[in-house]
Amino acid sequence: MPTKSKSPMVSTIEQSKVTPFLGVDYSVLLPRERSECVEILLERFPKGLAFPIHQHKECEQTYLFLEGEGEVTLGNEVHRLTKGGVVYIPRLTDHAVRNIGDSELVYVVVETYPEGYLPNEPTWDSHIEALQKRYKAGQ
C-alpha cells in the first residue's frame, strides 16, 4: 500500500538530470522519488565502454535499444543488440552491457522495484552515492 501520494509527471529527455558514472551518462527520465516502484533512465555508453558483470536483488530491468550496437551478457549467454532490441533482466541475474559499435550506444532502462526501493536509497542521488561507495568511484 502506498505511503505517499504521487502526482503525474510530464518531462523530456532534454529536461532530465544527467549523472555521469563509470563512463556512462545516465539521464533520469522518471526519478524514483516520483514513483512508487519504477525508475526510468536513458543510458549513453561511449564507443568501446563495457560495464562490469553485476546483478540486482531489489529490481528487475528492461532495456530498449535506441541507437548503436551493443552486447548484453545474461548469465553465460551473450546477445548482440541494435535499435529496437529489448532485453528483460529478472532480479538476481548476472548481466553486463558493452558497446561494440562505432558510435555511442543509447538505450532506455526501466527499473521495477516489486518490493519498493531500498530504504537507504529513496532518491536517485542517494542511489548514486551508494553505487560510488560500492564501486569506489567518483563521478
Features:
139 residues, mainly beta, six-stranded antiparallel beta sheet, three-stranded antiparallel beta sheet, 9 strands, 9% helix
Write up this protein.
The chain is mainly β and 139 residues long. It has a single domain, classed as Jelly Rolls (Sandwich), CATH 2.60.120.10. It is 9% helix and 40% strand. The strands form two sheets. Strands 1-2-3-9-4-7 form a six-stranded antiparallel sheet, with helices on one face. Strands 6-5-8 form a three-stranded antiparallel sheet, with no helix packed on it. Strand 1 and strand 2 form a beta hairpin. The protein is globular, with a radius of gyration of 15 Å. The termini are far apart. The model has no long low-confidence stretch (mean pLDDT 93).
Task: Give, in spatial order, the strands making up the sheet with the most strands.
Answer: 1-2-3-9-4-7
Task: Sketch the topology as an H/E string, one letter per element.
Answer: EEEEEEEEEH
Range of strand content: 35-45%
- Number of domain modules: 1
**CATH A-level architecture:** Sandwich
Mean pLDDT, nearest integer?
A: 93
Question: CATH class, anyone?
Answer: Mainly Beta
The CATH topology label is Jelly Rolls
- The first-to-last residue Cα distance is 35 Å
